[in-house]
TrEMBL record:
Residues 33-284 form the Glycosyl hydrolase family 92 N-terminal domain. Keywords: Glycosidase, Hydrolase, Signal. It is an enzyme of class 3 (hydrolase). SUPFAM superfamilies: Six-hairpin glycosidases. Pfam families: Glyco_hydro_92, Glyco_hydro_92N. It comes from the Bacteria. This is GH92 family glycosyl hydrolase.
Amino acid sequence: MDHRLTCSCLAVLLMASLGGLTTARAGQHAADVDPRIGTGGDGHVFPGATVPFGMIQLSPDTAMPDFKHAYKWAAGYQYGDPTIMGFSHTHFSGSGHSDLGDVLVMPIAGDVKLDPGDEKIPGSGYRSRFDHATEVEHPGYYAVTLSDYSVRAELTASRRVGWHRYTFPVGKPAHLLLDLRPSIYDYPGKVLWSNLQVQADGTVTGCRTTRGWAPGRELCFAMRFNQPLRSRELYNRETDVAYKGFKGPGNQPEDANAQNGRALVGVFDFGALTQPLLVKVAISPVSQANAVANLDQDGEGWNFDAQRSAAAAAWNRALSPIDVEGSQTLRTQFYTALYHAMIAPNLSMDVNGEYRGPDHQVHKAEGFDFYSSWSMWDVYRAQQPLLILLHPNHVTAFVRSMIAAQQASPFGMLPVWAYQGLETWCMTGYHAVAIIADAYIKGIRGFDADAAMKAMVSTATYGDYGDLADYMKLGYVPIDKEVEGGSKTQEYAYDDWAIAQMAKALGKHDIYATFEKRASNWRNVWDPNTGFMRARLSTGQFRVPFDPASAGYGDDYTEANAWQYSWYVPQDVAGLITAMGGDQAFTHKLDALFDAKVDPAIFKNVEDITGLIGWYAHGNEPSHHIAYLYDYAGEPWKTQQRLKQIMDNEYGPGPAGLIGNDDLGQMSAWYIFTALGFYPVTPASDEYAIGRPFVPRAAIHLGNGHTFTITASPLDGAHPYVGAVTLNGKPLERVYLKHADILAGGELHFTMQAQPNKHWGTAISARPAAMSAYSR
């Protein structure tokens, strides 16, 4: 669907900035973030408390619907919902799929109900109504008043601990309900087993095993209170009387100290309180003992405000590598995008170094932190390249984590879409190789490069994955053997190119030759007769009938149609231009893509395809590089034009400010790069295609001590085109930046003008590199 924003477009914000230009408060950018952006529509982000790349995402859940209706609630929260059913400790940020929602708690004043109830019937369960006017959302902090209980709920987070502060109405009994049944993307029988117990010192511990997106996922927790328990009741609400002899419906507590089963609820009673109830919860993917150790080490003391301040400080440090000038509205948009780009991947390791691997076994990290939550199909494009620029030390740990996961994989595979160490096999390609190669090509070290190369080759040659066996044999993925064979062929070819680049840098010539050849396999799904990429059958024939508008599972492409995927050859744009008939034919077809009249209803059964501009779909990742392709064909002014279209239509303030799900920061990272004026079209190269800036001044503070500054003038709606560019005061005639240009520091200045400059950046030598035409 095409959820066009009705809010003010970015161009208007930029024009307004001329009259109210402000200088960003260096090091204090957390104050500029609005976590509400993207919590409505299809943004799929959560408003709650977390720290950069932290293990805890403590956030309100407004609904946990069954799996058939879960898409809009992938983060547990939808801005338009009227009630909150509780606060859970794990969430994805902007994913297109759902799971997690672990360890859900709800403060209750007065009578306790054991089930969430119906949001349409107040008082039918423990969920509560709330008013957005009572919500406060800041990086690392969330607060809301639960109107049915008159309870003020406040949340903050550290790396492994969620911190709660609940202020109850005077004179009413205070309770905390713990529900181990709900899960985002819920369905009957998802909880395979859980246990809950109260230790002698009052610490509440437990684990649960689920068969969700990552089957057999186990998560444990430890919880403590700052007030003594008056009483507690532990319920097994199991209703399947035939299951292991359990009695249903579980309305009476069976044991006040321990309980096992598939439907556990705990109620902890504190009596009438005269001061706030503080709760702290640590989680562990390994064991209850590890959760207790995490709580002991990362959850010392009871100073909630100090923890809130520490979380804000962590976000200020994370956001500090970029200082942006502009209006407050513009800076809010920018720093919220930067915030969303640094929520994942997530720490998935206990204080003793133990973590759960894709083999479901416990492993121990030596000398690095283990991270998971890898939406590889999305984040290799811009989110990880952004972190290479801003947080290279974290990227070292990310790469070491991927290598460790591959070494523990029963299949010898790098992560594809993994979280809490476990693999889901969601999406296509093996894009971890692109992230690793991009990091190495851009100078990231601190990991075993030979082990990385071994992991990359092992992944790219595992024949059972996505029909790689046929791909290696035939040079393409046959559609009669594997769904989405067209796009899989294209993605494998790009990943192969990324492997070749790192092999070349390491002097591994045999590996380089093998994978450089495989990188040309995209040609095997190019159909010159129709002018589109198409899937082939095992016989070598293209599948018929063919409709370039068709999209859906089982088609030739992944979450896209031929109009969108036919541009996906980032490693060989020059070859694609030649295949399409040269520069003019190429740009005319790009124009046709953007200018087409498309009824959004055509994608009603493909919920990820949103944000339409013609056939271009900014709400999903296959389109993200397309606007920059005019640079490669000698018409960079059209890149500038299309970028303005996208920024005007697809981003904005407010809950509907993301046109599609953020996909663990990819949508937001696209915004950051584009606002700065350049974009990594081809990760694993050392080049960025230049677009046009959308901020008047930005300073990138690099880890090597240098600062790279981008300036633009006059920057307003009347001057949308680049007239000239200088790098350190010298004319820059090329439409790309080298990574070394940025690392060296200095100033990139854009002179903007009202009309397109149809001479700048048009020469072959001025264009970004592409494999077939030339190399640098």
